[in-house]
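Me: Here is a favour to ask of a fellow structure person. Could you put it straight underneath, so I can go through it closely?

Assistant:
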Amino acid sequence: MIENPCPCGSGQAYASCCGRFIDQGVLPETAEQLMRSRYTAFTQANEPYLLASWHESTRPVALGFEADEPVTWLGLRIDRVEAGGAQDVRGVVCFVARSRVGSGRAQRLQECSRFVREQGRWFYVDGDVRA
């Protein structure tokens, strides 16, 4: 059994998975690594990491975690990855994230997220939410 498993569902320990990006400042090498680390940052309500990894052309001013009802993130499943490798400049990661708001029912977010790499660093740009 893995001690302190990463919330992204990779099967690795947090420290050797998303923790190295979120806590240690290591830059993700792929769009999928950034996607997983952003999901993990959402589980932590880590607004600074999320905003720093969001492309400036679409980045909101704030995410407003403190104003929202608490969200419990239940899991992440990566369905498809298009490009987004260490040598690419664009990538797409399609995923399903499950969550529960307050004491309500579980819900699913299905999205194909677009990423861009500029000056060696991956950024989330935007995504298409699927029904």
About this structure: Strands lie at 71-83, 90-101, 106-118, 121-130. The chain has one domain: 14-130. The helical segments are 19-22, 31-43, 47-52. The mean pLDDT is 94.
